[in-house]
Each structure stands twice: as C-alpha cells, then as structure tokens.
Design goal:
The chain is of the alpha+beta class. It has three helices and six strands. A four-stranded mixed beta sheet has the order 1-4-5-6, covered by helices on one side. A two-stranded antiparallel ribbon has the order 2-3. β5 and β6 form a beta hairpin. GO terms for molecular function: ATP binding; glutaminyl-tRNA synthase (glutamine-hydrolyzing) activity. Keywords: ATP-binding, Ligase, Nucleotide-binding, Protein biosynthesis. This is 7689_t:CDS:1.
C-alpha cells in the first residue's frame, strides 16, 4: 500500500534496456498486460500507472554516470522527454570535460521540460516486516500454478 492506503504494485526489471524505444515498448506492453489481466486500467493520465525510471549513461570511454532515478513520470511522452533531456545534459557535460553529478533522485518539470534534482541517492536500509512471516512455496506448487495459468495473447 502507498502512503494514502491505496493498493500498490511495484515492478522492477533487470537493467536490460539500451534504447529509449525499448523502454517505451515495454511500458506499452505492461499496460496491455495489466489491462488484459484486469489488474488495472493502467491509465497514466489518471495516476493508475507511474514510472520511476532508473538509468545510467555511458558516453565514450571516459564518461560514465552513476545511477539516477526520475520519479513519478505520468506519461510515455514525459518518459521520453525526461530521458532525452538527461542525455543532452550529459552530452554537454561530457563535451565540456566535466564529471557527471553524484547519483541523484530527480523529478521532471513538465512546464519547463527539465529534470530537477530532489536529493542525492542513498542506499535504503530495509528492515524485515516482523508481522509477516516468510512464505515458503514448494517447487511442485509453483509448477502447478504455472500449469494453470492462461496463455497470454502474445505468447506463442
């Protein structure tokens, strides 16, 4: 649940996206999946889906950024605009021979079309939830669940 008490689902992917088009395609497929499974309408304009985008950039051999996170992106257009802005910003720093800023959490200002630093990124020290015991699932139970799952429309 989020701070307002609403159900919240967080999905984390491996760092596999090399192009902005791949990120956009993934978000569209995720929206379709959430709708198909009747989990959510996943309408970003209604706040039903938000994107927190983590990224790092490699420019040439000498310029590599730490990890940055852009929080609460509310449309595919803003995902693309924020990433393009960050790429241009770092290309400029690279061309000026400057080092990238420390790892940061950013927001995207739609009216100015820029990212804004919220805070330096830190490691979160998560504590286990003492009121929820660990759940152990047998391999045989996982197989049974997998066998009972319906095929998704794009799986052949």
């Amino acid at each position: 649940f989020n701070r307002a008490g609403n159900p919240l689902l967080e999905l984390v992917t491996e760092p596999v996206f090399k192009k902005l088009e791949d990120v956009s395609r993934f978000i569209k497929q995720l929206q379709n999946l959430l709708r198909y499974l009747d989990v959510s309408e996943a309408r970003m304009e209604k706040g039903q889906l938000r994107i927190d985008l983590n990224f790092s950039l490699q420019l040439g051999d000498r310029y590599s950024t730490p990890r940055y996170e852009i929080k609460n992106l509310n449309s595919l257009a803003n995902v693309e605009k924020a990433v393009k802005y960050e790429i241009k910003k770092h290309q400029l720093l690279f061309s000026q021979g400057k080092n990238p800023p420390l790892s940061q959490t950013l927001g995207f200002d739609e009216s100015q079309q820029v990212t804004i630093s919220h805070r330096e990124k830190t490691n979160y020290f998560y504590l286990p939830e003492v009121n929820i015991p660990p759940i152990r699932i047998k391999v045989s139970e996982v197989r049974k669940i997998k066998d009972d799952l319906p095929k998704l429309p794009w799986v052949y």
